[in-house]
Every structure is written in C-alpha cells, then in structure tokens.
Amino acid sequence: MTEIVTRFAPSPTGFMHIGNLRTALYAWLLARAGNGKFIVRIEDTDQVRLVEGAVDVILQTLRQTGLNYDEGPGIGGPNGPYVQSERKEIYRKYAEELVAKGHAYYCFCTAERLQQLHDESDGVGGYDRHCRNLSADEVATHLANGEPYVIRQKIPLEGVTSYVDEVFGEISMENKEMQDQILLKADGYPTYNFAHVVDDYLMGVTHVVRGSEYLTSTPKYVLLYDAFGWPRPHYVHLPLLMGQNEDGKISKLSKRHGAVSFQDLLQAGYLPQAIVNYIALLGWCPKDCNQEIFTLEELCKIFSIEGISKSPSVFDYGKLNWFNSEYIKQMPEQTCAERIVPLLRQKCPAPGLCLDKLAALLHTRVCTFNEATEMVDFVAERLPLDLAAYTNKKNKTTPELCRQILAEVQPKLAACQDWQNDALFALLKAYAEASGIKAGAVMWAVRIAVARKLVTPGGATELMEVFGKEESLSRIEQALQELGD
RNA sequence: GGCACGUUGGAGAAGCGGUUUAACUCACCAGCCUUUCACGCUGGCAUUCACGGGUUCGAAUCCCGUACGUGUCACCA
Question: Dihedrals φ, ψ of A392, to 5°?
C-alpha cells in the first residue's frame, strides 16, 4: 500500500486564519492516521502580498498546536527547498516543457489590454486567447524584442474534464468554462495554479487537502497532471468555515465575526488544545462515537475522510467557550492557578488577599483565563452597593435583618482565629442555629456585605477567606454603617 | 450572469431505503443540589429532515425540478 503524503501549503500573506489551521490539522491528521508523511511548504510566489513575519507566525502556530512536520522550512528534507521562491527556476523549466508539448503558450498581452477585456465584460469575462495561436516565428520575434510575457495553459476548447474528490465525489466541468490561466507570470514567478501542481508532484504528495474554494478550479490542475503525464493525486476538499453575522446571515468567516486568527484566539484566552479540538469537529465527525473531547493522539487514531462533511459549518464561539472551559476544568488546580494568579495579581495588587483561593474558586467558573479578571472586579475595589441587594426573596432577607445579622456576627468573626473557609462556615452555621435565623439568610447578608455584588464566584465564607480577616471585617464595618441603625 | 457545490432544531451534527415516535454536544428553558453564581445531576427543546413532484409495500435516506445559500470565474492563493 502506498504511503500517504499530505502537505500544508500556506501563503505568507497574513496571519494564521482559523480555517487555514483547520486545513493544516486535517492534512496532518490524514497523514498521521495513515502512518504517512506531512510536509510544510511555503507558497510565496506573490511577492507583492508578502507580509513580513508571516512565515514565523505559521511555523509557530504549528509548533503551539503540536502539528509537527516531517519535511519543511527549518528542518529541510529530501524534497527541498520548501519555499517556492527558492525553487523559481524549477517552474520555468516545467512551463517550457508544457509549451513544447503544446499544452501551454507564450502570451505577450499587456496588463492594460487584459484590464480592458475585464472591464468590457463587466468583470465576468476571461482572457480572449489572443496569443493562443501565435506562430513560432511570431513568438520568436516577440521574445527577441525582449517583450515581457507570461506562459498560459492551453485548455482544450471542447470536452469535459472530471475528477473524483474524496469528499464531494465526482466533479465535472466543461472545458469551455475554463480560462487559459497563467502558469508563469511576467516577473518570472509561477502562479499558485502552476507551482502547487509541480511541487505536489515533485514532493510526492498523494493527497491534496485544501478548502472547497478550489473545487471548481481543480479540473484545470488535473489537466496539468495529464499534460505532464503525471499520476493525479487524491483530492480532499474541505467544507468552508462560516461566521454568523448580526443579522443572522452567514458568510465566510472573517474579522467582523470576531477573533479569527489563531493568534487572536490565544490573545482572547483560548488554549491551543481547546482550539484544535473544537475545529477538528467543525466539518468532521467521528464514526460510531459520541466523544467530543479528544487529544491529538486520539484524533490520529480515529480520523478518516469518510467523516468529513460537505456542507459548510458556522464557527460558534459559544461552543469554543465550552471546549475551553472543559480543558480548564480538566487541568489540575495547581496548573490552573499558575495561569490565573498572575492575572489576578495584576488586577488586585492589594496585599493580604488570598489569590490562590480566588483562583481555585474561578477554576470551574471561567471559560477563558482572561474572563477571570472581569469576574474579580469586586475584589479589586469596593463596588458601589444598592441596599436593595440585601433583600433576597428566597432567603427572606431584608436590609434590617441583614443589619442585625452583621451586627451580631461581627464580634464573633473578630474573635475568630482560624480564618479559612471551613472554620468560618462552621462559625456562621453555628450562629444561624443559635439565633434561629436561616443559614442561607446569614450567608446572604455576609456575602453581600463583603463582596458588595449580587453574583460572585464563591460564597460568603469562601470570599472572606480570599479577602483575609482585616479586609473582611472592614467591609462588614462599612456595610453596617451604610445600613444605618 | 455562467459554472460548481451545499440545504437535518438557534449552532456543530449522527443518520447511507424499513424497531427513527430523527442519536449526541453546545446554547436555551425548567427542576434538583447548594453559602449567591458556577460545577454536577435530572428533564424539556425537529410529529419532522428547504420546498414540490416522482420511484417504492415503505424515503431524511434514491431520482427530477424549484427556492435559498455559498464558492468560483486574477500576472491572489
């Protein structure tokens, strides 16, 4: 059985879009699942759109997500170089071979003429094949004059070209629908359309994994393989990733939908593994299995092309949140605290606070670490408090009752030597029983007084432990004053 | 506009002609637990698979048409 070889071939023209990452993931998974090889290749043939640093971001993302590659930039391999700009001369040779074979031709049309053609057809017309039948002499003359030229693919005028996609099935396209696309640009660089075919062949790629936006241009690539006499690779086109607009409509996932690059998502507080886990399930589903939380290793074992769906899927930040919170809950408390405490310290620099305890309270309550900072505003400062907060229906509390509770409980707390949750809880519980007041009411009064907020992570005694004795008593004192006599 | 592809609840989805009165997850709602919230637990949430025809004893599952959506028609990838 032939080994599977896939590749991830990003263009360094921006940052790592989440759809791109997903393509990389599936290509990687397919290779790993089949015990094959995964190659990374940089497609930088558009020298105009190059973005500095983009390659580093791509490589770093691969590292952060654990998508290791067998050949590619930085590590080399038998099929290098792995950056297309470094393989420039290879493409010319193959393009000329195609010309010699009659499957491509020189074109001397100017950019202006092409632009005019484009404008006259309202943007939907293509090249008029003006240079397709230039005689050898004419070509020689133009060349001798040093005129700039491109090399275009000579698409058959009639007939149908079809291929079988592994997920979409057979795709057929009438040859007359296809343009004589440019293979080699005037600047000597190849286009994507040409370079990727040559490289995939040269590098032994067996499965081309990419977004479904290439579905309808693939017949042209297939024609290229045929023209060279090369075996066609397997094609695995992936359904697009969409985003939901505010008006409910969906469109290709873009910035207006929120964070869409891997970096943005990290910035927003999501864990690499949660992101990977989530996008693995966007457009793919395991067979006979309801599991959703997967490690990369587990995914390798069960990933298969049959599970890839044809319809586009909408990126749902809500579900990503769920995955992230699951990963956070899965972390040992200690590890979680290591991530959260520094954030808390920044937001709540006051000494005496037990931030470890706060972090522990947040462990099951946050979707992202960043969210922790938002949830502790009441710790960082004493929030303005409406006395109405002391009124709680379920526990039957009123400001008056709360005042009484706080006043009676204050000296007991002041005398407490063991300022941690269990002891404090026991103390308040004992007071409740002795006074005949519902425990819930006591807890409510104390929590509101100490936290000055209706909804808080953790209860009364947990928060008192966080605040420490001094601050807790001070806040209760303030509450008493506010509640009056 | 031509061509291509898609369409199962708000989102991801299972389903591949007959125990499907359509699994599972998120979201949402209700209840339990409870020191508020969260966690956890329990239950609810598509009589119906875009719509219309057809094939069949039987269709979400096969075929055709319509609608809608998306993609693509670059010296971008």
Answer: -135, 120
